[in-house]
Each structure stands twice: as structure tokens, then as C-alpha cells.
Specification:
The protein is an alpha/beta fold. The protein contains 7 helices and 9 strands, in the order αββαβαβαβαβαββαβ.
Length: 228
């Protein structure tokens, strides 16, 4: 971890403790080593600073729209976090290769399959790119959600702290089960992954995933046997 990452992390953690009532104990469930695809929803600008800075010193990266680097302050922050610029609305293979390289290096790769902020916290349709990365890398996926801070602007105008909740699910792998992986299959996989996010959220945030289909392509590890 670089000095710049350390200083930025300390600063943002301090600011977030002042502005937010943090409920983030479940971040301790994030594995301490090994490649990991961290699949999350995307509510607003608070998501990344709050969570990324608390996953350090684990090496963490993630995708961010390439337009982010047009803003000098955002460019500084996202370059500090070694974020990967991605061109939305197209198959950006350069970004995909960078994501695979990060996983091969044992990093956490954070992905928001919705591809954009919801602002209201309700889930929108996930895009199939997350399925492609999971199949190509073989890395485990870990669902993580945030909620509550969609009310941040209302609270800050009233000089009140806003709640910020984090919930972390169980890791799983993606398996094609021997079928040909078409775009339709990748989309079904992405929808099943998004269903895992919905399962962690209160019902009012389920959005388009209020009705979740059975998980045909997700493979969870069996629970560890109890020791006597």
C-alpha cells in the first residue's frame, strides 16, 4: 500500500465517521487474501470511499467510467485506488484484460453490474460483463450491498448524520454446467448474481429483482463440518 493510499484512506475514513452512522461490521467477512470479485450495488458517490478505504491494506481495484478522469479531483482519487477506466456501452476488452490481470495478481476486483448509480438504492438490471469475468477468471464472487445513504443529501441539508449499512453474503463460483455460454446465458447468470444482492437488501430496495429466479449457475461451497 502506497503512502498516498494510506493518507487518503485515513482522511476519508475520518470524514465518513463524522458524516455517517456506519454499520459496517460485516466487512470483516471479506476474505483477507486471494483473488475475489466483489459484486456490489451502486447507490451514490459514498459507496467507494467508505468501503474501499476500509478494505485496505488488501489491494483493491474496480471499474470506473472513463469520464471520471475528466474531473481532476475524481481522477486523483480513482488513480490513487488504481481504478480501471472502462468505456460504458461497449465491450471494452482492454478494461476486461486489466480486470483479469488484477485477479491473477490476487487483488479484489469490485464490480457494480448495474453500471451506474441508482440514487434511490433500488436495484436496476445487471449487465452480463460480470459473468464473463467470473467465467474467464474462475475467481470466487462475494455479494456486498449498501443502503441507507440514499438519503444523504436530505440529511446533510438538515445537518444530520445519515445511516450507511453494509451487508455481506456468502462467496460462490459461477459454473456454466457444460452448456454453451451465449449472451442470453450470461445475462441469466448476471441476473442470478443480482438476485444474491437482492437477498441481502430490505424488500424496498429489491427493485427489478423483487421476483428472483432459482440459481442455476451459482455454486456455493458446502458448509464446513462441525468439530467435536
Amino acid at each position: 500500500m502506497t503512502l498516498r493510499q494510506t493518507l487518503v484512506g485515513i482522511t476519508l475514513r475520518g470524514i465518513s465517521r463524522v458524516l455517517l452512522r456506519l454499520d459496517i461490521d460485516q466487512l470483516a467477512r471479506v476474505p483477507k487474501a486471494g483473488p475475489l470479485i466483489l459484486v456490489a450495488n451502486h447507490v451514490n458517490f459514498l459507496d467507494v470511499p467508505v468501503v474501499f478505504t476500509r478494505l485496505l491494506p488488501r489491494p483493491v481495484t474496480g471499474f470506473a467510467k472513463i469520464e471520471t478522469w475528466d474531473n481532476p479531483f475524481k481522477a486523483f482519487l480513482f488513480s490513487t485506488w488504481d481504478a480501471i477506466p472502462i468505456r460504458r456501452g461497449e465491450a471494452d476488452m482492454r478494461a476486461m484484460r486489466a480486470g483479469l490481470d488484477a485477479l491473477n495478481a490476487g487483488k479484489i476486483l469490485a464490480i457494480a453490474p448495474e453500471g451506474t448509480r441508482s440514487s434511490n438504492g433500488r436495484l436496476a438490471h445487471g449487465h452480463p460483463g460480470v459473468a464473463m469475468l467470473a467465467l474467464m477468471s474462475g475467481a470466487p464472487l462475494l455479494p456486498l450491498v449498501y443502503y441507507g445513504h440514499e438519503q444523504f443529501n436530505t440529511h446533510i441539508r438538515r445537518l444530520r448524520r445519515c445511516e450507511f449499512h453494509v451487508r455481506v453474503g456468502e462467496p460462490f463460483h459461477l459454473s456454466a454446467n457444460g452448456v454453451k455460454v451465449t449472451r442470453e446465458i450470461r445475462q441469466q447468470m448476471a441476473d442470478e448474481i443480482m438476485g444474491q444482492l437482492a437477498a441481502l437488501l430490505p424488500p424496498e430496495y429489491h427493485g427489478v429483482y423483487a421476483d428472483r429466479s432459482a440459481s442455476s449457475y451459482l455454486r456455493f461451497s458446502p458448509p464446513a463440518a462441525a468439530t467435536l
